[in-house]
Specification:
- The first copy, chain A, is an alpha/beta fold.
- Chain A has 2 domains: about 150 residues, Isopropylmalate Dehydrogenase, CATH 3.40.718.10; about 150 residues, Isopropylmalate Dehydrogenase.
- Chain A has an 11-stranded mixed β-sheet with strand order 3-2-1-4-11-10-5-6-9-7-8, sandwiched between helices.
- In chain A, β5 and β6 form a beta hairpin.
- In chain A, α6 crosses α7 and α6 packs across α12.
- The longest helix of chain A is centred in the last third of the chain and has 26 residues.
- Chain A is globular and about 60 Å long.
- The model of chain A has no long low-confidence stretch (mean pLDDT about 90).
- Chains A and B meet through α8 and α9 of A and α8 and α9 of B.
Chain lengths: ~350, ~350
């Protein structure tokens, strides 16, 4: 697959982006990368690096969207930004997927306006993999839509289901709905209505799932609105970081604990590898015509490389067509008609 | 202060409740406890225990609300339940506060219907302390109200502020609003409106706070609706548990790691103490006429003891009057009038 990489997006661009791209063509035999950004800057980054020029080229973009930039201004004024040019390559069929670690809101808006929603999808959503005790779950929506309707959440469930079953080869992923209790009657207005739709969706819906059960392998696909999803994702990141800082502070207080830590280091390292954001790479924006992976602004080369891996994988299975097909087969049209009839 | 303890509520009642009560009269010189529940059962629990009978008595209640019980049935049919009789002692002035580790929804509903909302409060809320890197923050609402209006969240902020400043002696606690980004413009419909109200509230409002910053001492009082609060609380509990299980699994794989763990054990223990739920004891239901602390169903004797400590402390400062006074002084009446004028 041919991946267009927004080489200028992210806190440490373009260096980590270029390094990640080079690592990925080294590691994944079937990937071709187009670095999109300031040609002079990128060529300088590539100087003295050895790589297969058949599999890595540069496309010029004269502008860069900065991390703190206002959405409206960036979209209107920066017509030659690296993210826009990169998405354009997907639109024109010159690339199969786009990866960006830049301003996530602007990357999302650019992908959405240029590639448009996939047939049957009302609201595209971010899907993020998160580690559990023995595996992982897919959180959808992880932050694209802060205010949702039940039908949106139902579509997220179908989108997540299509992704999960195809990528992990599990025919009937367990779909859970985040709620304030596991009993069927629990929830807010949004989730109670969504619960009813999921119950008759034909998906392997296991019911409500509480925050405390997210990490203990209850569900494969966890559905929520983007406000909740963003809060769950960031709370988890913040808490994990804090737990390790607190432990570290305790360890430095005692000589024996320090020795103990040295002996435990490989165990800590394995644990970190299992839970490391860099291993997951990035979150696809599901439900658009094309494959678009958005990574953390503070991505490392490894995170970029793994985002490229995900992009390669999802473009390979034609994720957007897969999702549209799944939604078309779901009887969603009937649910929608009923919804409109009621209103 | 005189604390009425629902001795029958909780997964391990009445044993842990009685043990916690005994520990608390041992430790806190100014506490008197009334155990509420089946007299015969409780007297049997107290047999062969030595304690000051002036400071611990039993009031009979013939019924118990079970953990899985349906709310409506329990409220209607169990007029002599231990939680109801315990709340009744507060209502009649025979106790200053009530503590329950029973069914939290039913405990809340019972306290709310019998003691009623404090003047100026539209929706009482759960307030939970959570540990941070160097201190703690108060999460409000931690689960009482799943669907909220901006005015409810504003009141939660005042309630949390009154609690925090009085209990921790900090004159202007930093109040943050959970959102999907720290920029002022971020949020969903509910939080964007709430943001405007908080901005002009006179509170020390520091703006939006993301999940990742909750645990790094950005805010003292963290405001959100009860659906979000419950999700944050339970996700944190679940993740912390999972991290330790994952670490443990890694440790058992290697002999050196096991030795390392033994050397690090005191550090782990200190860390656990700082983050242990049992140390915090329970969550007060703020905004009712009286002091009511709801604890985890799986509370240990230490958790019960610490819930009694919190009850004692909050009854001592007359938390419900404090909250009503703070809301009266806040100009909330004017905000409310404007709100009704708009609708």
């Amino acid at each position: 697959m041919r991946i267009a990489l927004d080489a200028m997006g992210g806190d440490n661009a373009p260096k980590v982006n270029v390094d990640g791209a080079l690592e990925s063509i080294e590691e994944f035999g079937d990937v071709k990368i187009t670095l999109v950004g300031d040609e002079a800057v990128l060529n300088k980054q590539l100087q003295r690096k050895s790589y297969d020029a058949q599999r890595l080229d540069v496309v010029h973009a004269s502008q860069v969207v900065e991390m703190g930039e206002a959405m409206a201004m960036a979209l209107r004024k920066k017509k030659d930004s690296s993210i826009r040019v990169a998405v354009g390559l997907v639109k024109s069929g010159k690339a199969d997927a786009v990866v960006s670690a830049g301003h996530s809101g602007i990357a999302m808006a650019t992908a959405l306006t240029m590639l448009r929603k996939a047939p049957g999808v009302d609201r595209p959503a971010f899907a993020t993999l998160m580690p559990t005790l023995t595996g992982r779950f897919l959180l959808i929506d992880a932050g694209a839509n802060v205010d949702c309707k039940p039908l949106n959440l139902l579509q997220f469930a179908f989108m997540g289901n299509a992704y999960y079953k195809t990528v992990f080869g599990i025919p009937y992923p367990r779909v859970g709905l985040i709620s304030n209790g596991e009993e069927d009657c629990k929830g807010n207005e949004l989730t109670k209505e969504t619960f009813k739709l999921l119950k008759t969706s034909g998906l392997n819906f296991i019911g409500n799932i509480e925050g405390k059960d997210l990490f203990s392998d209850h569900a494969d696909v966890v559905v929520c609105d983007g406000f909740i999803g963003n809060t769950v994702l960031k709370t988890s990141e913040g808490l994990a970081e804090t737990i390790f800082k607190m432990l570290k502070a305790e360890i430095t207080k005692s000589f024996f604990a320090k020795i103990g830590y040295l002996l435990m280091k490989p165990a800590f390292r394995n644990f970190k590898k299992n839970t490391d954001y860099d291993e997951y790479g990035g979150a696809p924006l599901l439900g658009i015509n094309g494959t678009c992976i958005i990574s953390h602004g503070r991505s490392s080369p490894k995170a970029i490389k793994n985002a490229i891996k995900v992009a390669n994988q999802l473009a390979g299975i034609d994720i957007s067509k897969l999702i549209s097909d799944n939604i078309a087969q779901s009887g969603m049209g009937i649910i929608k008609e009923n919804e409109f009839a009621e209103n």
